[in-house]
Amino acid sequence: MSRILIIEDEESIADLEKDYLELSGFDVQIESRGDSGLEAALHTDFDLIVLDLMLPGMDGFEVCRRIREKRDVPILMVSAKKDDIDKIRGLGLGADDYMTKPFSPSELVARVKAHMSRYQRLVGAGQKTNDIIEIRGLKIDKTARRVYIDGVEKNFTTKEFDLLTFLAENPNHVFSKDELFRRIWNMEAVGDNATVTVHIKKIREKIEFDTSKPQYIETIWGVGYRFRI
Ligand code: CA
């Protein structure tokens, strides 16, 4: 799961941001001071940081500069004053994006998602050794055995991962449940293929926007399943 750090001293704003980001599947930590926020940012791996400018302990300018010395994590800076945003730009602190308060929580979520997928593409491009399958919003990192939907990581069990990867590597090919069971579980299918059905259902719940209208794994009635490309 992607982790986000919010460094914000106004509790009501921090809580609102946290609620919206958690609803979108992110794991969120709040720090209410600049100095404690910097500590957290340097000692824990976050996928993105939402940083307020006016903070007790250490201001956002300094926090941003010091995070940048050590880490590449995307930083989204927020401020109540438009002038501050211009100042941040002028200082070239290395923030990735800026938002002026007040903003709607859904706007924040949209920006966070956009940065996260851009960052993961860059990281992915730098690690040439990782074997990655990308189809529309679905990304399967075979090397790290991780699955992302629109940049957000989904937790997969070993067999769910193997099954999804096998289907995605063989798109537009219909496989019967017996065949999938033999290939993924390395066992002879013995009549009851409920295991495959259950795993497909769980995979769909994680990757499909609407499980009643699957965009990735289609059911071919009476035959089996096919990965759509
Ligand atoms: Ca503040």
Textual characterization of the structure:
By secondary structure, the chain is α/β, with parallel strands linked by helices. The protein has two domains: 124 residues, Rossmann fold (3-Layer(aba) Sandwich), CATH 3.40.50; 96 residues, Winged helix-like DNA-binding domain superfamily/Winged helix DNA-binding domain (Arc Repressor Mutant, subunit A). The protein is built from eight helices and twelve strands. The strands form three sheets. It has a five-stranded parallel sheet, sandwiched between helices. The protein has a four-stranded antiparallel sheet with strand order 6-7-8-9. α1 crosses α5, α2 runs parallel beside α3 and α6 packs across α8. It starts with a strand and ends with a strand. The structure holds calcium ion.
Determine the strand fraction and express it as a percent band: 15-25%
List bound small molecules.
calcium ion
C-alpha termini separation: 25 Å
CATH superfamily of the largest domain: Response regulator
Task: Sketch the major β-sheet.
Answer: 5 strands, parallel
CATH class of the largest domain: Alpha Beta
Give the C-alpha Rg. Answer: 21 Å
Number of strands: 12
Strand and helix order: EHEHEHEHEHEEEEHEHHEE
Helix content: 40-55%
Shape: elongated
For the biggest β-sheet, the strand order reads 2-1-3-4-5
Number of domains: 2
Secondary structure category: alpha/beta
Mean pLDDT: 89
The CATH topology of the largest domain is given as Rossmann fold
The residue ranges in which pLDDT falls below 50 over 5 or more consecutive positions are: none
Which architecture of the largest domain per CATH? Answer: 3-Layer(aba) Sandwich
Annotation field: number of helices: 8
